[in-house]
Write a structure and sequence with these properties.
The complex is a heterodimer. Chain A has 17 helices and 17 strands. By secondary structure, chain A is α/β, with parallel strands linked by helices. Chain A is elongated. The longest helix of chain B has 35 residues. In chain B, 36% of the residues are buried. Chains A and B meet through helix 3, helix 5 and helix 8 of A and helix 7 and helix 8 of B.
């Protein structure tokens, strides 16, 4: 397994498994407005694979929202074709088409005179579902986005917080179970802390619903976090690079892409590799916290390490002790040494682990599995080696790519 | 995920206060009515006064007055609301300035002059007066329908269209309900204009409450004049109050 494979993450493996038929195919899609010399969107051609989050990212005014609105034909293309699930929908009835495509805008656009339940029921009602089916679906969706139907179904949007409104917006877009969702900066108008939480929820939700999602944002960090694939757009929606986040970070296709990613690409890359994917130091000296100090000292001495990790009955890290701590322990290990810090899950990103290491001042992170049992140690050196190997690989690749084009 | 609860107790307090507000006007009008009746009963009425100031005659005048106001307002609603909707549609936006100009014209000309012009053209009678009232009160409904629709948050319209509502469904389910408060305010204004202006109908052969006032002036009978004036004012206040209640009831919840 190469380093590039390691950091590719879930998106890449999913991409590889995708069948040949994309969910959305844009062919030479162009939008020109009268009185403007240059088209707003110029010959965009893209395949969007099933079940993936495709992020359109670019500076404001680059035409990313226009491109998205061409897909559900809120804006009619001047030329080009749109295929949805293998079917050419360029001239299909737009209202019928839109009922097959979930839609969330930045302002969410909940109807203030509809209750939460009625808002979610919008598309099912348009599709003529019967009352019982709509009612069940509304309850199901409220549960899905983590809001209690008994409490929220009868509320009006003005009685909700920003985060709750956002969740209702997503539930409403999912109502008729459309295969495709379009989301235009859905987390744009939300405070950073709530945004972070909603993004995590959104990713968890996507694990369950597996929709093909076209997601527009101007925030490259959001794109890297959420996207299975990212399309970095330049002026007139021209695609500067369309690839997995890992490949974009490692092998930016142009200086434009490099500039757009900005500084700190190495740090951003750490967001893509999971703690569980790198080689952990599994040779740590460990002992049971309910054991004796003498046993612990034997283990420590034979391991050749300077400190020993005490685990509880379930194998969960409790305390760090060194030889002197053990001398002073008087047989009770429960108060010896120092409590552990910087515990990270195997599912956490390297970026998160590094942050934990820095804030806890530990110099090493304790990696645990889902139940909290000790898996191994992650130190600065491992993080640095991982980062460097990614960099070396990518710079070689980049040089090679440049040599070909030169 | 934590579900926040809305502050309910404060709301109940506000509701009690706002419910009490609805009682002020009926109580005031009842007091005025009783005072007027007591005052008239205490007067020695001569035969001329008795001919006007009796229950049958006054009831007929009030009914005539209400008919004028109701019929004219209904016609205005039927004309101005659809016109206002049309003027805000993308495809027909060019009619907006024309429509507004006509409405402005109708209201700019003094009502007496306007009705006189209509009567000169069509002769005296109920229909001519109605025509004049319609022309006079079209603007508030027209303008409020247009403003009401224009102030609807365009992101909601985009949202509705993006979910697959047709333009007509968007109009009926989203735009019009959200415009209701503003449109109703326009209808209320038109109704009050019509109630007030209907007093002038007496000059064109329709005997509404203006007739009672005019009799009082012509025959120099102060009790008749006062009863006419108080009834006309009281009726206007009552209708305005009722329109306010209707407005409150019809405003969609959640706004």
């Amino acid at each position: 397994m190469t380093a590039t494979d390691q950091i590719a993450g879930p998106g890449a493996s999913q991409a590889a498994a995708t069948t040949a038929e994309p969910m959305i195919r844009l062919e030479e899609l162009t939008k020109s407005y009268r009185g403007q010399k240059k088209p707003a969107v110029d010959r965009v051609t893209m395949d969007m694979p099933r079940g993936e989050i495709i992020v359109l990212v670019g500076p404001s005014g680059c035409g990313k929202t226009t491109t998205m609105e061409l897909i559900n034909r809120l804006i009619e293309p001047t030329s080009g074709r749109i295929h949805l699930d293998g079917e050419d929908v360029t001239t299909a009835d737009p209202d019928t088409l839109r009922r097959r495509i979930g839609y969330v805008i930045q302002q969410i656009g909940l109807f203030p005179h509809f209750t939460v339940g009625e808002n979610i029921a919008t598309v099912p009602k348009l599709l003529g579902w019967d009352k019982a089916r709509i009612g069940n679906r509304v309850d199901e969706l409220l549960d899905l986005v983590g809001l209690d139907p008994a409490v929220f179904a009868k509320r009006y949007p003005k009685e909700l917080s920003g985060g709750q409104r956002q969740r209702i917006g997503v539930a409403r877009a999912l109502a008729a179970d459309p295969p495709v969702m379009l989301m235009d900066e859905p987390f744009g108008a939300i405070d950073p802390i709530t945004r972070e939480r909603l993004q995590n929820e959104f990713l968890r939700l996507q694990q369950q619903v597996k929709k093909t999602i076209v997601f527009v944002t101007h925030d490259i960090d959001e794109a890297i976090k959420l996207g299975d694939r990212i399309a970095i757009l330049g002026e007139q929606s021209r695609i500067a690079q369309y690839d997995t986040p890992a490949n974009i970070l490692s092998n930016p296709a142009s200086t434009y892409v490099e500039d757009f990613i900005g500084s700190g690409a190495s740090l951003k890359r750490l967001n893509l590799s999971l703690v569980g994917d790198v080689a952990l130091d599994t040779g740590a000296a460990t002992a049971r916290i309910d054991g004796t100090a003498a046993e612990a000292r034997d283990t420590l001495e034979s391991s050749g390490r300077s400190a020993l990790l005490l685990l509880d009955g379930q194998g969960r890290p409790q305390r760090w002790v060194d030889a002197r701590d053990l001398d002073r322990a008087d047989g009770d290990l429960r108060r010896a040494g120092e409590p552990v810090s910087a515990l990270v899950d195997t599912g956490a990103t390297l970026s998160y682990a590094l942050n934990e290491m820095l804030t806890s001042n530990a110099g090493v992170a304790l990696v645990v599995d889902g139940s909290g049992a000790f898996q191994g140690l992650l130190d600065f050196e491992t993080v640095m080696v991982t980062t460097r190997s990614i960099q070396r690989d990518s710079s070689d690749f980049y040089r090679a790519a440049k040599a070909v084009t030169d | 995920m934590v579900a926040t609860t809305s502050p309910v107790p404060q709301k109940i307090d506000l509701e009690v206060k706002s419910n009490a507000r609805w009682l002020v006007m009926p109580i005031f009008l009842t007091v005025v009515g009783i005072a007027l009746w007591a005052w008239v009963s205490a007067q020695e009425l001569d035969s001329i006064e008795q001919r006007t100031l009796n229950a049958g005659e006054l009831t007929a005048r009030v009914i005539e007055h209400l008919q004028l106001a109701a019929v004219s307002t209904l016609i205005v609603i039927a004309l101005a609301v659809p016109l206002g909707i049309l003027a805000t549609r993308r495809a027909a936006r060019f009619v907006a300035p024309v429509v507004l100009m006509l409405g402005n014209l109708g209201q700019a000309i003094p009502s007496l002059g306007l009705i006189t012009l209509v009567v000169l053209a069509a002769g005296v009678g109920f229909k001519s007066v109605i025509f004049g009232l319609v022309a006079y009160s079209a603007l508030p409904i027209l303008r409020n329908t247009m403003i009401g629709l224009q102030q609807v948050d365009q992101t909601l319209v985009k949202s509705a269209r993006g979910m697959g509502m047709s333009p007509m469904q968007t109009l009926l389910r989203i735009e019009l309900p959200l415009a209701v408060p503003v449109v109703l305010a326009g209808i209320r204004t038109a109704l009050i204009l019509n109630i007030g202006t209907a007093t002038l109908a007496t000059f064109f052969g329709v005997q509404a409450l203006g007739y009672v006032i005019f009799q009082g002036i012509q025959l120099d009978r102060t009790p008749v004049l006062i009863v006419g004036a108080v009834l006309a004012s009281g009726l206007a206040l009552l209708v305005d109050y009722l329109a306010g209640v209707v407005e409150h009831v019809l405003t969609p919840r959640g706004l």
